[in-house]
Design goal:
mainly beta, Jelly Rolls, 5-stranded antiparallel beta sheet, 3-stranded antiparallel beta sheet, 10 strands, globular
């Protein structure tokens, strides 16, 4: 399950160059069963999410091109140059914050793998 870690990383740190929290994007859970959770997101320019982590490994699949920025718990930043249908695999328990830095709306789905053996 996704955990909201608040607007500050553990220890109260804020990522560099980050002022007020980003306006939230649209989030809709499409599937939530014992095996996986699939969530749809829409981030307009400047929208994103707050510090959080996931209990499960997950893959993010983008539906359009454009840059987004991820900030990790240690303050390191990664600019993600998303490509249509590109994906990123994120391990469980990584505290992070992501937002849309492009001038276009970004659409993507996130698939969390609750059960890794069948």
């Amino acid at each position: 399950m996704e955990k909201d870690a608040g607007h500050s990383a553990p220890g109260g740190r804020r990522p560099p160059n980050l002022g007020d929290p980003h306006p939230p994007g649209t989030k809709k859970i499409l599937i939530d069963d014992p095996v996986m959770r699939v969530t749809y997101y829409r981030f307009r320019p400047g929208e994103g999410n707050i510090w959080h982590k996931h209990d499960y490994p997950h893959v993010v699949v983008m539906f359009n091109d454009g840059p987004s920025r991820a900030v990790n718990e240690d303050g390191s930043e990664t600019v993600l140059m998303s490509e249509r249908y590109g994906h990123v695999l994120v391990p469980a328990d990584v505290v992070h914050e992501v937002w849309n830095e492009s001038e276009e709306t970004q659409y993507f789905v996130e698939v969390e793998f609750k059960q890794t053996t069948y």
